[in-house]
Amino acid sequence: MVNAIKTLKEENEKGARVNVIEELFYDLNRSRSQVYWTNFVRGIFFGVGSVLGGTVVIAIFIWILGAFGNVFPPLADFVNGIIDAMSQRR
Question: What pLDDT digit, counting tens, does each position of 50-71 carry?
Fold first, then answer.
């Protein structure tokens, strides 16, 4: 009897949680087109942010390699080659 009551209580709590989550979802997203549009815009911003972030990380990495160019001469030649290639593309 105690196990049956405990199981019933757990099932009721689980059902209540599911209902609350569904209500929140449908309150925030009234139509499928709104959900699709929101996800599309999020994807665009994620892509642009990833490209910009990657560019900044690579630029900082090359700058750090250039700072160590005096210590490692072959590294300086490599970095100078990259910088020359970037300068020619402008």
Answer: 999 999 999 898 888 777 766 7
How many other C-beta atoms can be found within 10 angstroms of the C-beta atom of residue 79?
A: 19
CA dist 82 and 62 (Å) reads 9
At residue 90, the pLDDT reads 60
How far apart, in whole angstroms, are the C-alpha atoms of residue 50 and residue 44? Answer: 10
Name the pTM for this structure.
0.50
**DSSP of the chain, one letter per residue?**
-HHHHHHHHHHHHHHHHHHHHHHHHHHH--SHHHHHHHHHHHHHHHHHHHHHHHHHHHHHHHHHHHHGGGT-HHHHHHHHHHHHHHHHH-
H/E segment holding residue 89:
helix 73-89
How far lies 61's CA from each of 33, 70, 72, 77, 89, in Å? Answer: 42, 16, 15, 15, 20
